Structures
1.
Amino acid sequence: MGADQTEPEVPEDAVGRRVSCGMERATVRYVGAVPPTTGLWLGVEWDNPERGKHDGSHEGVLYFTCRHPKGGSFVRPAKVSFGVDYLTAVLQVYQVDTEEVLREEISISSKALEWQRIEERSLESLPSVLLNRCEVNGPGASGEIQRTTPNVRWLDLTGTLLCCWEDVASITQQLQQLEGLQLSYNRLRLPSDPSAYCQAFCSLRVLALVGCELTWSQILDAALMWPQLEDLCVEENAITELQRPDAVLQSLKSLSLSRNALVQDSVLSLAALPRLEHLKLSETGLSAIRFEDVPPGNQTAMFPTLKILNVDHNNITEWSVVDELAKLPSLVQFSCRGNRLVSSDGNVRTANQLLIAKLGQVVILNGCEIHAEDRRGAELDYIKMFGEEWLKAGGQSQPSTQFTCQHPRYLSLIDKYGAPEEGELKKPEPFALKNQLLKIMFVFPDDANRKPIEKKLPASMVVQKVKGLLYRLLKVPAADLKLTYTSPKMVGTEFEIDSDLKTLQFYSIEDGDQVLVRWS
């Protein structure tokens, strides 16, 4: 820590303010001297703790505290920026070529919106303002936002220097048509009385708060400000236990909680959202869910309007979880990629058929439409697959309770197609290597001269060994290889293969898929 001769003026209310230093963001926790050095220092807590050096102490003296033991630093005021007001940022971004901006695409909570060309090239005509990573610190002069950009409906304030909801409200209350707001990667203090600011967000329908270090209780407190909210994205926060959202978020139709380490027993608290249609719970550690208000094969009273559910990349291994989800009365779209739901023969296609057969109302599974002939085939195969077990459990007379609990749809499928004949019964194939070989085409999009390579590999093969095979074929170090895959079922979509220790089966790679190989 050395002295700096230039000491720009520091705002009187600097403690608690947000600052930028290069590409990094931080919150000021201390302003003052740090003996034995001379001059003024700012003690900051970095959003990215890896940028820091200590816990807010120097030579045994604690000047401020951090959530992370290495999340703090002392910096000279000349090294940081306290930002600019909203209008200054708008002019910096939009004075160059407003026409180009009007054709930009804005993404709010995974919804892409493309604005058409507007004839009048003026700030007053802007329907969307994108200030992503701009150093916005507040509204500026009173009333100027309403006068200058009155028609904004979608506003992106991702990664700004706003430090509190009061400042956000002082911007949004001047944007009376505002429908969508992106506030991801900010650190915003809650007001003492959130309900006092509901008028500032009275038209807001879509809100994204990704990566804001928020707990669920903080979100519920803040929700008093958003009386008409329909779509809330709070991925990648500090959410663990979910409390019941009483008297708030009652208009919510879509909620994304992905990439939060949830206490899974608390997920049922969300059933208190009466209009919820779309719920994303991917990468939350979910392994089980139970609707104990009804027995297997019946419809739960919970989540009555839920149509779309995403539980990708979790720890679901038991088919009983799928049976529980089949109780949801309105579920029509379901995604569970990256879970270890395995059929007795270990075949990915068989597991997919089991999902179709168990989820009678679902029409889109893992992003693919279920056609009538696919459903019929899956359900008939399901009847045959477990027919012998059904006969042993009592068959036509009265199957055992244990059987009906394990196969809640079996009796309704028999009513639909008829009981299986003994000659039709399908004995489960053993989990054998020959049943698991996948025909995979390796392609090299960055090397036009290299021909595709076709290989048959076991679904149980880990990615690390696949890279070892590619090293022998390509002479490119495995550490430099980056793999993705595409499926003919999802044309145009490329899925990342990001863990060397996972199997091909874990990524739901199927026979006939393409693996794209790139290297640095």
2.
Amino acid sequence: MSKEEEARQAIEMLRHNEVANRVSAANRLDSVAFVLGQERTRKELLPYVTDGVDDEDEVLLAMAKSLGRMIEAVGGPKYAHLLLQPLELLLTVEENSVREAASQSAQSISEQLPPETFLTNYADMLGRLAQKEWFTARISAAGLIAVAYPRFSNPTLQRDHLIYFTRLCKDDTPMVRRVSAQYLGTMVKNVWKVLGRTALDENGVVVTSLVPLFEEFASTDQPDSVRLQTTANCVAFGEVMSEIASQHGVLKSSEIALLQRILPLVVATIDDRSWRVRWTAAAKFAHVITAYDQLPDAMDSLVPAYEKLLQDPEAEVRTAATFNLAYVAKCKARVPMPPVNRPPQDGDNDGYMAGPRVTVAERLVKRVTGLTEDDSEHVRAALALVATELAPILGKDATITYLVPPVLLLLRDAASEVRLNLISSLSALNEVIGVDLLSQSLLPAILDLAQDGKWRIRIAIIKHIPLLAKQLGRDFFTEKLSSMCVGWLGDDIATIRQAAAINLGELTALFGTQWATQFLLPSIVDIRTHESYLRRLTALQACAVMATKMDADAARLHVLPLVLEMASDIVPNIRFNVAKELQKMTPVCGVHAYESQVLPVLNLLMDDDDRDVRYYAEKTVSVLDEVFEEEA
């Protein structure tokens, strides 16, 4: 079939009764265009596609994606505006995924349009979309206008499209307002980039047109879906103000006044009636802190607001806020210390200002103990993951005084997930104070997790054992935990046994060959004679893993004989696994051990009655011969 016929067939498939065929053809539009050539694509294919936008959503989605890849197919940027006609129709369809794909394609095309084409064809399309009667077109216009604003070099176009955007923000349809709210922060950033600092003056565009929209979107009269965007929008505004402060050193009085209008909107989300709005604020509070950290007095209101999130009635909100604890604590500002044993109250900011100023970490660490007693296991589990990250911020003395007591409480928590999370995050604490203060409390927590009824908990603690061993030190680990690590080889769950074998290899690499032969191998020797072949198989795997972490002499003298003896096991599964493991460990032992000890055993296995044993023995011999030939 020629390329011409293939292209014609694809065009015919666009008319096919089967949706799958039409989707396939729509996905190949860019390929078809290259076959047809640029002129025929412009004169034949694009009009055909434009007439065919009344189709199933799957077809339209494929079409929207393909159009974004067809700039070169229509003749490059000079003719790229021709692609906007079908895309404009796709930007009005009801299916959200189609509109999103069409928006992405339109944006990618707009980036390659020549300036004069952008200011005419593309700008005109955005104006039409913003004024269409059907709300889906206005939804598309909101995002596209906000993103395109920096390229409107004509003041008239800047004014007109800003008016379009503000109208969309006040649209009667909640879905249009929701999408407009999503892009309000982007619009503020882009307006500032285009107009500069003057946009934030008392009579500037941001103050007169956009900040009132911030306040309107944060109003309780708006639906939840609109108020959800308040936090993200305020973050974008804070980033603009921080950039101005970074560039110019200080903020003007008008900018400070503007900041004082925005901060209450962030704080208001903390008390919103909708838990979803409060959850969004809690989840994004790290971004809030990053955006406002360098701005004057911002933390005086934001940190008390964050503390209220930590005490929210909804566990989901408290959990999201807790995850951000370390990020908030890294804030460089100093804030007033609240009165002792008094939580933040509405309208009580003046009382909070009365205390001495301390770092944010010093203030928040006082909340950690309260969180250890939270009713929700999820909150305590989140705290266990992040609490130790406060240690490098606080320093050694404050960590010992304020952070170690709640950490010890978490180590004794009834929920295994909490204890596991804390153990997995101890490295930050260890770097500041060492693990000696916690070692005696760690031990019962580790032992409890090692015997937990949930196998996923047991495997998680196994994976953390090498890190714990490094922190606890060889002597303490040997005395208290080495026997437990070997004991996992007898677990009822196969995945646990495999993880335990790998764990022994990592401990061998950490503490050395002599330690492994003295404290691990004797117990493994006993498991080799266990009545269950599964236990014997685990012992075999552990020996092989450990051998790869040992020096050659120790592997050859202490481990290789144990593995070779198991070649005579009555169970074929053991015998062919001996062949497989020898393939891994023999290169460590050296060519002499291979020729004198390993090869005779493999020759016996190649004559075994079981075909699987013979197969793996032959495969191992072949691989090892190649390995030692290359070394020679």
3.
Amino acid sequence: MGSQNALITLYAEQGKWRELTVFYHQIRKQGFHPNSFTFSSLLKCLSSSQSPLLHAQPLHADAAKRGFVSSDPFVTNDLLIVYSRCGSLQSARKMFDEMPVPRPFCWNAMISSYFRESNCGAARELFDRMRKSRLANDVTWSAVIAGYAQNGRPKDALFLFKEMLGECDETGSRLSPMSHTITSVFSACGQLRDVILGEQIHGHVKKTSSYVENDAFVGSIVVDMYGKCGFEELARLVFYSIVDKCVVVWTALIASYVCNKCPSPAIEAFRDMIHEGIEPNYVTLSSLVSACSQIPDLMLGKEIHGFITRRRATEAPDVFISTSLIDMYGKCKYMVYGRQIFEKDKKYPICNTTALWNATIAGYMENNFVSDAWDVFRSISHDGEGTNPNAVTMSIVLPLCARSSRLLSGKEIHCYALRNGLDQEICVSNGLIDMYSKCGELKLAENQFNRMMNENNRISWTSMIDGYGRHGNGEGAIRFFERMKREEVKPDHITFVALISACSHAGLLEQGLRYFQEMTREHGIVPVEENYGTIVDLLARAGRFKEARDLIEQMPVGPGANVWGALLGACRIHGNVKEAELAAQCLRKLEPKDSGFQKSLSSIYIEAGKRENAEDLRSQMNEMGMAKRQGFSWLETKEEIYESIDRDKHIPDTPETWSTEQLEVSH
């Protein structure tokens, strides 16, 4: 029996489940009687099988028939671990409850299993029982702190860590946090962006251990924490203090620079890393490409792309790197290369091809290639084998419907979301609200809003306020804002941009001014340029140009294009040429290559009877080589969508007058 068990152990250690099962069935036919050691080896090897739960159940039955489940704690523990790792928590809990005296190892396994399934309540219930029985050890505390941090509950993780520091084990000795505990605590600080608490814990760890300097994993988490808190210099200092700088540590430093919009130092760090002979992994390369996206620099991006291609020529494409490259080419306004990557890599059976489709659609959207974005989305059904649009896809495509007024297409996507349960995702729900609002279907937008009443966030409320304001219903926007306050949802500066803009378009001057004062007085929100822009628009639309100019002069920040653009727009309503010229002069300094405000000033000149001024302005624009903005119109029928491009010619508003050259059909 010894040699047979030894061979079983060898197969188990090598993870050869197929060979192990064949050998096991052969020796069983020859009269072999398994013991507890045999069952433990078989159960430990189950993770390498394709259907571990399917194989665990007959082994469980066989072990129970031979009396090992009730008498041997090692077999029981192994069964518990198999069930918990397979996601069969009901079976694992049943075994746990049937144990006369569960060992701490079993408690810890059950707690970790509940956290893996995001059942924090059940995990905490077991942990509290362990503490009451004085069974909780340092491994238990570490598992619970890590569980909270991994499930997006950083405050609970930090509160428990504080309690742990005052706890003693069964011998009366103070519990000492392990390296895994420390990494979870720093991760929680990073999630909260709490650098003060992070520094305090960093100081405590330095006094009690050398984890940060000598443990690369702990050190990388500290670098990541400071990076997420916006202190890339502190991240760099911690990086230099780490003794063994492996690829994880270098990647954390590069990612911290990228997180803080410091692409040049990120690229320099990558070059230093290569010089040190460290081989980058896919996370490093994804972060590097993201750094290039922030510049953005097409030549540098192509250089990095070539480096990646040379280093990974024999490997299958990595979805993280591929999506980062597509995003980078989109930001560099060169989606031709992005599309090439998409067409090449979508053929490989990589783990998540949906991400490739999402990145390509988003890249086209960023460059205002609406038709191309829509064509890629439509091609998923016949060209994206094994690809299913997810919540991210919906949140990318719904603004596309809103931008091009594709109401029928938006309803199609809504139906797909309903069939697949995606409408319950808050990002999808907010996208539907925004799409229906911008397409003029405020009733449908409000229906979607009410369906998700318990899940709605600040974005949902702001979208509804903006929707009513966009269609001139200032009273409806105010009604929603007051309802938002009653529900104790905290507004932000964007909410007030939407609200005051709604008041401006509806002519509700006094209400708009009152809400501007309320923003600071009652909600403690410091106005930004967008907020001042809405107030300037509100006052100027009401003809109170002097007050608008006084406000601009008193602004604590320099007025930008938003503010002067609002003033210029109101000048056209009232035919105020003098103020329009001033606004255009300021805009010319801020955005010299933009032709939009020049065309607005030209229109004001024409409406005021100053055609010579308008002609002079257009001549100046032509001499400067200013690109003219193209206007787009859509005509949607049940069969197709007609897109009209205004090439600076007068096109009547009736489709009968459109020529073949002026129509582009999007199926």
4.
Amino acid sequence: MRSEADALLAWKATLTDASALSNWTKPAGLCSWFGVSCDAAGRVESLTLRGLGIAGTLDALDAAVFPALNKLDLNGNNFVGAIPASLSRLRSLAELDLGSNGFDGAIPPQLGDLSNLDLRLYNNNLADGIPHQLTRLPRIVHFDLGSNFLNMTDYGKFSPMPTVTFMSLYLNYLGGSFPEFILNSGNITYLDLSQNIFSGPISEHSSRIRESLPEDLPNLRYLNLSYNSFSGRIPASLSKLGKLQGLRISSNNLTGGIPEFLGSMSQLRVLELDNNQLGGPIPPVLGRLHMLQRLDIKNAGLVFTIPSELGDLAEITFLDLSMNQLTGALPLAFAGMRKMWEFGIASNFLNGEIPGVLFTSWPELINFQAQNNSFTGKIPRELGMATRLNFLYLFSNNLTGTIPAELGELVNLFELDFSVNRLTGPIPNSIGNLTKLTRLALFFNGLTGVIPPEIGSMTALQVLDVSANRLEGELPAAITSLRNLNYLALFNNNFSGTVPPDLGKGLTLTDASFANNSFSGELPQSLCDGLALQNFTANQNNFTGRLPPCLKNCTDLYWVRLEGNHFTGDISDAFGVHRNLVYLDISGSQLTGKLSSDWSGCTNLTVLAMNNNRISGNIPATFCRLIYLQLLDL
């Protein structure tokens, strides 16, 4: 029989990206090799090569040579191919971790012969069923087959696993009803069956699961059944799981309301019931869960008002009640949730004012989403106190008044959306302090004044949308400092003067809209420098001169409206073959030249309007290829 060193060197010779194994040489001595540990007799007892990016297979690893190997950890590499059945010859193996690789094929049932084994095969490409032999491993504690392509519905041959404390089968294609062998595995503390296709009531399995979860799994601390097709009510028997800290049953087909007994599960830290059609009100007794840190009940068909008792959840950091039919005002008692990080109440029917006290009471707040409601009143000035905020969404409400200057205190903000309200007054100069902001949306309000020149300091900005307001004056030259800008919407305002000539230079703008203003002069010739422009509208202005020549090479153009201006130059200098172009209106200018056959390459055109220009010559016969064309006006 070959030596352990020879066996490892032979295996190494089949691997790639194995620079971490550079000291695997005979002169170095086996027990000093990277990742190798030996017992007192000099035999290899552990091989740990975790997260090294090594690629290859296990085919050349001669398992029979390693009688003392008790740990094989290859997690986080790029191994592929089948898991060899020969690994069952590692008779001392107690821990096998092949997680986060690219292993495929079936799990060899022979692994069930390894009497001391703990098994981690998660995050691979393993397929077929779970071998029932694995459930007979007599000492297994950790059983993790999550994130594979395993599929089966019949668990009749499976044995109880009384030694298992951690079981994860998430993200596979496992179906059928709740597996009974799990209920007979009485020491499980962590159970994750999420993201499978299990179905039927949680509360029944052969008429006995109604009481089995609490009676047979008394030590359960974490239960995740999310993203399955379980139906029926949330079973009352769950209330007897006195040690349960995490209950995740979101994204199923559960109905029957939120049961009041959940308020008695005092150890709960996490409660996720979202994306079910539970219906009914939020029980005030949930406010008794004084250890709760995360509560997610979004999109659950909830009605009535939000109980003020939830304000007693002093430990909560995440609360999402979005996408329900909740009514009434935000309770002032929510100020008691002083550890709040992320708060979502979007897409309900809430009204009244947004309490400013929330922003003074939540110093850790990073995400506040209250969009798509009917909130009224002013944006509270106190929001400037929530200086850790990253996301602030108040769009689609009925907010009035001005944008408070205190907004400039939110220097950690990434996204800000106040659009579709009734805000008035100017954009505050302090907005220039938001140097981390990537998205600024203020469209569909009644804002007046100019775009402040301080906007040039917002160099992270990618999206700037101030359309459909009453803004006026010239664009500040500082707008050209926004080197990450890719979406610019200025339409439906009262802007005038020329557009800064360097706007777009060196950028990859995908959307630019200047429509329905009083701009004049020439469009920036470098507007489409990045050749990424898709939607471009400048209609109904007083633009003159040439169109940007880079338009001709913007192959992703989709929607172009330039009518109602005074452009000049040859039409063929501005447009070429744009296979995605659906709509083009350049009517009412002074463009010249002839129509080339290139236009037949714009195969998705539905509208082509060039009327009232000075274009001459014949209409190419190839226009007949434009089979989607609905309007042609020349």
